[in-house]
Amino acid sequence: MEALMTPEFWIAVGQIIMIDILLGGDNAVVIALACRKLPPAQRRLGILWGTAGAIGLRVILIFFALTLLQIPLLKIVGAVLLVWIGVKLLMPEHEDEHANIQASDKLWAAVKTVIVADLVMSIDNVIAIAGAAESAGDHQMPLVIFGLLVSIPIIVWGSQLVIKLMDRFPMIITVGGMLLGWIAGTMAVTDPALINPDVMASMPKLQESDALKYGAGIAGALLVLGIGKLLGRRTATH
Fold first, then answer.
1. Residue 237 falls within a domain, yes or no?
2. Residues sharing a CB contact under 8 Å with residue 135, sequence separation 6 or more, in sequence order
3. Using CB atoms within 10 A as the burial measure, which of 22, 38, 218, 225 is most buried?
4. Could you give the CA distance from residue 33 to residue 227 in angstroms, rounded to a whole number?
5. Residue 22 belongs to a domain
6. In this structure, what are the phi and psi dihedrals at residue 185, rounded to the nearest 5 degrees?
7. Residue 152 lies in a domain
């Protein structure tokens, strides 16, 4: 219980909630599209069951992601992916991204559509949450579950408000992209291959310290911001 009272735990919770809101906005769109043809009486059931199934699958995926991140060099790969996800977050969106989501007038067909679509779209979310949960030590999975339980209702029932806030204050998206860069930087420098003398002994090692971790986090955040702005300008020009 003492670990649950530490600032690190609640900072990680905040990061997971922000990641879910920023990267999970698509989930609310998928749910709405998949359930739009259901009778009104079944629509709420479709949303609830589809969301529950999506949460369950995501928890399982994150459990495996946390385990895989202990393999040498995979944190570095995950960090590179997170930088790219952060850059994509800063890029203009395509309006036809959800054109292939099929609605159904059958409850379980709609639920299946929600779960499958969420599974396909959750890879970025899973990597980001696994990276944020790394700082929680032995309480990673409780942290992940708590963060998901808090953020999913926000996504499903507050998605319109979240979207309006993002439209009105674009800085929220920029901060979110930089947060992913921060997580990428701090995750990369904690890879076992870089800090553990017993793992890949021929590889040069880093001296673990708060200065290294925070410096890598700042570098990752600035990298995402720089690449995102540069590519955004090029896209706007074309």
1. no
2. 8, 11, 12, 186
3. 22
4. 32
5. yes
6. -65, -45
7. yes
Both tokens of 161, joined, read 């408000």
Asked whether residue 234 is domain-assigned, the answer is no
Tell me: the pLDDT tens digits for 57-88? 777 888 888 787 788 888 888 888 888 888 88
Q: In this structure, are residues 113 and 54 in contact, taking their beta carbons and an 8 Å threshold?
A: no
Asked whether 126 and 57 are in contact (CB, 8 A), the reply is no
Is the torsion defined by CA of 229, 233, 236, 238 positive or negative?
A: negative
Question: Could you give the CA distance from residue 208 to residue 54 in angstroms, rounded to a whole number?
Answer: 37
The number of domains in the chain is 1
Q: Which of 178, 35, 40 is nearest to 118 (CA)?
A: 35
Which range of residues forms the domain containing residue 17? 2-229
- Specify the residue for token string 């702005």: 229
Q: Which of 96, 93, 113, 141 is nearest to 30 (CA)?
A: 113
Given a contact cutoff of 8 angstroms between Cβ atoms, the answer to whether 229 and 90 are in contact is: yes
